[in-house]
């Protein structure tokens, strides 16, 4: 009995040690039920975004070295290493004719270090803006992909509901045909509709797998990894929060794209100033003790400067800096115009999708359902042909598909607005 108990304990311990991790992994919640779960996973795993963050971190580390003085230099000169031929050559400082130790420090012209530090700071700000822009672009793609995933799933559900309805209509048509109240063509039409719906389900399944693979790629998961069924879409912001003038002000001050372009422009301005500073010489100062045998008996001071004689080269560099600044300003203006145009399009598209979806839900869909119920009752009483009944059913389906599609379009337009803002509304 004791042996059996020990065996059970060892078996349980072995199962916990070997099977528990795989059991936990198997029961780990799959992402995809909400867009927030996918965004959290992408922020942690997406390699492109990670690369941009590391680049921004590297750019930030360049600021301090850019404004630092260059390392000092030490020069050691041994004079008369044979002492006028009295001894064999030697490298011992105490046995040569004299040893000079020169300590030198390069000193850039006044203001150059500060300009280099400012340039590195703006370049770091630009890299940070590009990293934020990379995340804004990535999150927008995930939000749009999730909305498409939700649309496909809802469309599949709707198509299956219509398929079930066609099966019921086929039974009604068969009963009426058996009683001599309807033509055989009615039964055939229901069967044709069922075949078309099954083909649509195959196409939707293919589209769902493509969308799932794209979402998995964005969150750094295997393409065939399963995703949970999408449960809900994010609520759309209130109409008053979509005032274009207020959003334009926010975009101008916070858009990652504009932040990066503004930083690039300001770096170009500082680069131009630094180029003009190159008209003035850099200085090198030094001090040199002179050792004779084992004692220091002489001291020397040294000042060295470069002479900017190549004026044609300097002028070319200055013109280059001016042209680069003009190019940076032009890019900033072009980016601003494009961002504001995209913002206007996204805001108007979101408002249009919201209003159209509301009209379908409040007017078109109830009217289509009433029309279908009336057509069904009339067909059962022999007062309406089957083609009219199918048309009324198609109107309901088209209205529901349009409603789902508009919901997905609204989410896509919201993702575009948040991409341009660099933050969620």
How would the blueprint of this fold be written?
Layout: H1 2-26, H2 35-45, H3 47-61, H4 63-67, E1 73-79, E2 98-107, H5 112-178, H6 184-218, H7 244-254, H8 256-277, E3 283-292, E4 295-305, H9 311-380, H10 386-421
Antiparallel strand pairs: 1-2, 2-3, 3-4
Helix pairs in contact: 2-5, 3-5, 5-6, 5-8, 5-10, 7-9, 8-9, 9-10
Please sum up the structure shown:
This protein is of the alpha+beta class and 425 residues long.
Helix content: 55-70%
At the fourth level of CATH, the homologous superfamily is Outer membrane efflux proteins (OEP)
Q: Please compute the radius of gyration using only Cα atoms.
A: 38 Å
Name of the level-1 CATH class? Mainly Alpha
List unreliable stretches of 5+ residues: 1-28
Shape: elongated
Q: What structural class should be given to the helix and strand makeup?
A: alpha+beta
For the termini, the CA-CA separation is 67 Å
Beta strands, count: 4
- Secondary-structure element sequence? HHHHEEHHHHEEHH
User: Which CATH architecture?
Assistant: Up-down Bundle
Number of domains: 1
Main-sheet strand order equals 1-2-3-4
